[in-house]
TrEMBL record:
Organism: Dehalogenimonas sp. 4OHTPN
Record keywords, A-Z: Hydrolase
One Pfam assignment: Isochorismatase
Organism phylogeny: Bacteria, Bacillati, Chloroflexota, Dehalococcoidia, Dehalococcoidales
SUPFAM superfamilies reported for this sequence: Isochorismatase-like hydrolases
Isochorismatase-like domain ranges (all copies): 40-213
Keyword Cytoplasm: no
Name recorded for this polypeptide: Isochorismatase family protein
InterPro entries in the cross-refs: Isochorismatase-like_dom, Isochorismatase-like_hydrls, Isochorismatase-like_sf
Amino acid sequence: MTGMTEPYVTTQNIESKTVEWLERIGACNRHVMELKPGNSALLVIDMQNFFLDPASPSFTCGGTAILPAVKRLVAAFRRASRPVIFTRHVHHPANLDSGIMQWWWEGMCLEGSPDSEIHPELASLPNEKVVLKHRYSAFYNTDLETVLRCLKVEDLVITGVMTNMCCESTARDAYFRDYRVFFPADANGSINEEMHLASLINLAFGFAYVTNSGSIVSQIDPDPSHGKK
């Protein structure tokens, strides 16, 4: 289920859409938190060509719409000298690690392929951690938790694709591990609005503070001139 005739969100309307989403989940989004910059990290989930290339069978329209917001967050965290951690969802070319996912999905993102690379506008720096994962959650059978503990991270800002799959799974696992989770609605994307909004409701109700990228940027990097395009 990846095809759509019209994207549910674009770079042109994502700001107004985000206002609408936050209003619709307001009754559930009661655990308002202020980011602790010195104990925060940014997690960029699966912003890979596999999901962001319009020619890919797994193209996620929400991913291209959120790209500018994710870029702003990455830049802000880098300016603040706070960790930016990327994930790449990949599988061995011989499907040694695919398991049930090979049956569930028609195609796999193969390790070492061009599709598996992070979008060029979000390329990681040499000193930034890239987590390779084989399941939805970035915590499952990876060293992400070890890295976060060593960095003394308490507040985790989660961005990427897909809102209702890898991003939500990671947010839930982060909450289970006692991280304070910040989930910007305009920096997480899916394939349709129903799935995106359902995840925002679920996460706001039980796992995260759903907010917007501008609020996060202003807290991690208070200089207003930095947030300008």
